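Data deposition worksheet. Section B asks for the primary sequence of the deposited chain exactly as it was used as input, without tags or linkers unless they were present during the calculation. Section C holds the resulting structure in token form. Section D is free text for depositor observations; keep each observation to a single sentence. Incomplete worksheets are returned to the depositor.
Section A, Depositor: J.P.
Section B:
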Amino acid sequence: YQLEQFLFRAQRGETDDEDMIASMERYISENRPEAPICREALCRGAMLNQKLERALQILLAWRANGGEENLQYHLCLGLLHQEVAQYRRAGESFEKIVKRAPKYNLARLGLAETLKIRELFSKALPHYQFLINNDFRHKLVLLGLADCYLGLDENLDLAEKYCKEQLQTEPENPIAIRLLGQIALKQNRLDQAETYLREAVRLSPGDTTAHYQLIQCLKRSGKDLEREQKKFDEISALNKRFNQLNRNRLQAKDKDLPDIYCEMGELLLKSADAESALPYLFGALSYDPNHLASRRLLYKYYVERGDLPNAQEQLRYIPEKERNRLTSP
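Section C:
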């Protein structure tokens, strides 16, 4: 029972319990039968906390101990490649699992997602269909099916149905709303398309696809698109830099990681994706609790949301002279 609790907590990224980590690492060092699931839990927990370099270290040690024979190793390797936008390599890892274990749903979903992202819709579609035919109605399956039908320009009514099914349980899912906008645009329902796409942009300001599709809609409607084009260019530049940092951090030295994490968090804040920014800013602080740039960004974040206790906590790490300037009326 204790191991089960440890695994559950580790996969959720709750890795601050030193006794828990020590116990799991003992299972691994003694090469017990439970070692693979311990490695998987620690690896996925590290990825959840955006500690991709820690996940890579776990995987390298795992491979050195025969990991390539283990399905969970290939799953974690695929998820790590996916995190850093290496979709072809991610797909190769997931495909190795699916060939050996066709009903490993998580691996098949990963394979479908990587094929879809690479716009190989005709190859992705059978995997999504396999999953839904086996009652795996995950939101990524529903929206993946819709995206594939849209990309293949077929079964658009069914694609719309899947998007609306997801919105019944998650009314503000930005991807479902954006896909509905794209379907409406393809069917020349321009007013409806614009409504959906503006809502998608509002809910997910960093979604370059939503911005691009909105521009296409405005262009076809004969409306002014200068403002949206400017936003699209800004978001595209931010995303390009973010993806570059995301790839670089796997090979970065520990001393450089606080600056990398901080910049990634700042880029997300500029993209109006504040919730996603926090793990990166706290990731910087996990390497350097006194990282000033991260403390400044967190202070501003908490002040803007009226969270004064957490804002005050950040001030403790900021030099007094600057602290007085930040807090003066």
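Section D:
The chain has a mean pLDDT of 90.
The chain has 19 helices and no strands.
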